[in-house]
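Cross-check.
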Amino acid sequence: MGCVTEIDNQYLYGVKELGSVLSSSRVVSVVVVVVVVVVVVVVVVVVVVVVVLVVVVVLVVVVVVVVVVHIVEVVEVSLASLVLVLVIAVVVILVVVVAVVVVVMNSLIQSSVFKPLSQFLA
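Predicted model, tokenized:
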């Protein structure tokens, strides 16, 4: 009987020690570092995606402007109608860019990066 009581006391002491270790600032700081690293990685990925999309939009706008100028020189269409076509093209391009950003952000949010983190923090 005395032996069982001693084991029980050691078990309870171990559980108390484990609780104090888990509540220590070291574990909290590790969790904070993991959260900060994940947030930084997500922000960097989003910034890179946005920069690439902006470069693509600028290139497409330059190509559209060159084509419009060529059409004006060759066909001699009214400038107002070509400006209208150019504005519509830019709006369509911006809508596509916003849609791509939304899809990328949605896939990042649902990716496996956030699921273990949310389970770890829960």
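The radius of gyration is 29 Å. The CA atoms of residues 69 and 82 lie 9 Å apart. Passed to J.P. for a second look.
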